[in-house]
Amino acid sequence: MYKIAVLPGDGIGPEVVNEALKVLNAIERKYGVDFETAIYPFGGIAIDKTGDPYPAETQEACLKSDAVLLGAVGGPKWDALPGSKRPEAGLLALRKSLNVYANLRPAILYEPLKNASPLKAEIVGDGLDVLVVRELTGGIYFGTRGREKTDTGYKAYDTEIYSTEEIKRIAKVAFDAAMKRKKKVTSVDKANILESSRLWRETVEEVAKDYPEVTLEHMYVDNASMQLIKNPRQFDVIVTSNMFGDILSDEASMLTGSIGMLPSASLRDDRVGLYEPVHGSAPDIAGTKKANPLATILSVAMMLRYSFDMEDAARDIEDAVLSVLKKGYRTQDIMQDGMILVNTVEMGDLVVEEI
Amino acid sequence: MYKIAVLPGDGIGPEVVNEALKVLNAIERKYGVDFETAIYPFGGIAIDKTGDPYPAETQEACLKSDAVLLGAVGGPKWDALPGSKRPEAGLLALRKSLNVYANLRPAILYEPLKNASPLKAEIVGDGLDVLVVRELTGGIYFGTRGREKTDTGYKAYDTEIYSTEEIKRIAKVAFDAAMKRKKKVTSVDKANILESSRLWRETVEEVAKDYPEVTLEHMYVDNASMQLIKNPRQFDVIVTSNMFGDILSDEASMLTGSIGMLPSASLRDDRVGLYEPVHGSAPDIAGTKKANPLATILSVAMMLRYSFDMEDAARDIEDAVLSVLKKGYRTQDIMQDGMILVNTVEMGDLVVEEI
Ligand SMILES: CC(C)[C@H](C(=O)O)[C@@H](O)C(=O)O
Ligand SMILES: CC(C)[C@H](C(=O)O)[C@@H](O)C(=O)O
C-alpha cells in the first residue's frame, strides 16, 4: 500500500488533480492495488488559510508519503507578497524538503498532435522526444542572496553554487536515463564564463567514464537555446543546472505546441518522488472546465513508473491518453479543425474508460 | 575624421571584416568622409602572438578610437586553455574596458528570407522585428567567482550582482529605443526567485515613470523563452540581464533562421561603440569563402548610425543589402532553391555596387 500526498494548489490545479485521481482509481481497480491518498493545502490557498505556502501539516504529510502529486501554484492574488511569503517559496521548500534533486521533463510531441508544434513540419519530422534532466535542489535557486544599501540605491546579488557531489548525482540520473533511450547526453553549461559550469563540465566528464556506451556532448546554454529550435531532433537527454533547466525545459516544452500535455517527475535516490504537470495554474481559465488534465494524468503515469515500479500500469495510462487523442477528443488548448471538443471532466472520463 | 579600431579575430572573422571594410570605403567615397581604420590582433590570434587575447597595444588603440569593429573570436585550438587565458576572456575584457554596457541585438527577419525561419508561416506573419537590449558589463559575467576544496571534491560559485545604477542606465537605453519603435518594453527577469531580479524589476518600474508613452511588461525568463517561440510578434524591445540576454538573444536570432544576417552594437553613454556580428568564428568554414559577410556589413551600418550619427549612410547600407537579397543573391548559409549562390567576396562586391 502506497501513501500519496495530494496538493491540488491554486487556479486550475484542483480541477486537473481531480481527473488524475479518477485515473489513479481506475488503476487501483484494474490492478487490485490500494493507494492511500490524502489532500493537503499548498501554495496560495495555504497562504490564505495559514499564512504559509507550505504549512507544517502539509510538510509532515509529504515527508511521510511515498509520492506527492501536485497540481499548480500561484496567481495574481499572491504576486504582491514579499519573496519569502509567496507560493513559489513553498514550491522551493517542498522540493528541498523532499530532496528531489532530479527533475525529469520529457518534451514529447504526440503523433496525433504533430501539427500543434510552432516549428515547421520538416524540422519536427517524425516527432520530438527530448528528456530534460534539470538539477532541482541546488544552484542559484538555493545559493546565498541579499541586497545592500549603497549611496545611490542598492546592490543585490544571488549565488550560483554547485558541489562535485550535486553534479555527480544529477549526471548519473541523466546517463541512466540515456541508457534506456538513445544513449546520448548533452550537458549544457556556460563553461566559457562560469566557474560553476567548469566544475559541472569536469564532473560530468568523470561520470561519463562509467557509461562508455553513452555519447556525451557539451553545449553552451546560448547555443542550446538556438539548437533546440534549429534541430531539436539532435537531442536525446539534456542535463543541466536548475536555472538553465528552468529556461530550456520550458523552451523544449513549447516546441511540442502542447504544454497542456507535459508531465514531470522530481526524484531522489530512493523511489520517493514529486509529480506535477509542467504547465502553471492558469488563473484566467480556472473554474471554466477548460483546463487540459492530460499533463497531470501523465504525471500519475510517471509516478507509477518511478515511485511504484508499476511499468504496465504506467503504459496503460499512456496508451489510454494516446488512444483518446487518436479518437479525436481534444480540450480547448489543443483543439484543431475536425476534432471533438471536450471539457476537463469529460477528458478525464474518456481516459478512465480506455483503462 | 573618425578613428576605427578593427579587430578581425579568428576563424571567418578576417574574411567577413574584409568585406565590411570594403563597404565602409564605399561610404567614405559616397559621403566624402574619411575614416581612419587600423587593424589590431585580438582573440585566439593574439594569444598565439602575445599570450594575451587582448594585448596592451590593442587595448590602447581601442580606448583611443571612436568605434571598434570586431569579427569573431575563438576556436577549438584555444578551448583547452584555462578560463582566464581564453579568447572569451579577451572579449569580456574588451567590453568592460570600453564600458559598453548596452548590447543591442536586433532580430529581424528580412522579407526575402521569410521562409528561412524555423517557425511556421502563420506565426511569423509579416515578419519579425524584435530588439533585444542586453546588459553587457555586469551580472554573473563579472561577479566574484571561485572554487573551494571540500572533503569529496569542490564547491564552485559565481555571483549574479546588479546595482540600481547599472539597471537604471540599461533600462533607459531600452525605453529610448522603444520610443523610436513600437513603444513597448518587455523586461525579463526571474523575480519570483532572484533578489537581483527583484531589484531589476523595481528599478525598471522607476525608470518607466519617465516614459509614460511606453507600455512596460514584466516576464519571467522561462516564460519568455516560450513566448518567443509561441508568439514572437508580441515583442518590441526586450531588456534583460547579461546572462538571460545571452540566452534569449540567441534564441531570438535563431527564429529568423539567418543568424549570418544579424548585426549587433554595444554602446555606452557617449557615442563610442563596439560593433560585431552575432554569429561566431565558424572555424569549420574558415578560409573556404563560404561565410556570409552581411552581419558584419550591417554592423557597420549600426556603427554609422550610433557612433557617427550618419543615419543616411546607415540606411544606404541596409537598403543595399535588401536590394542584393531581392535580386536573389545568397551565400551558402541562406541559400534557397532558384537563388544565385555567391561567395563571401562576391557578396561584399554586390553590396558595394548597390551603394
Ligand atoms: C514557479 C517557479 C518558481 C518554478 C521554477 O522556476 O522552478 C517554475 O518555473 C518551474 O519550472 O517549476
Ligand atoms: C563568447 C561568449 C563569451 C559570448 C557571451 O556569452 O557573451 C557570446 O556568447 C556572445 O553572446 O557574445
UniProtKB/TrEMBL annotation, chains A, B:
Superkingdom per UniProt: Bacteria
Positions bearing the site annotation: Important for catalysis: Y141, K190
Any one Gene Ontology cellular component term annotated for this protein: cytosol
Keywords for this protein: Amino-acid biosynthesis, Branched-chain amino acid biosynthesis, Cytoplasm, Leucine biosynthesis, Magnesium, Manganese, Metal-binding, NAD, Oxidoreductase
Cofactor(s) required, per the database record: Mn(2+); Mg(2+)
InterPro entries for this protein: IsoCit/isopropylmalate_DH_CS (IPR019818), IsoPropMal-DH-like_dom (IPR024084), Isopropylmalate_DH (IPR004429)
The protein's annotated pathway: Amino-acid biosynthesis; L-leucine biosynthesis; L-leucine from 3-methyl-2-oxobutanoate: step 3/4
Cellular localisation: Cytoplasm
Domain Isopropylmalate dehydrogenase-like: 3-351
An example Gene Ontology molecular-function term: NAD binding
Binding annotation for NAD(+): 75-88, 280-292
Binding-site residues, substrate: R95, R105, R134, D222
Function: Catalyzes the oxidation of 3-carboxy-2-hydroxy-4-methylpentanoate (3-isopropylmalate) to 3-carboxy-4-methyl-2-oxopentanoate. The product decarboxylates to 4-methyl-2 oxopentanoate.
NCBIfam families xrefs: leuB (TIGR00169)
Assembly and oligomerization: Homodimer.
Official protein name in the record: 3-isopropylmalate dehydrogenase
Organism of origin: Caldanaerobius fijiensis DSM 17918
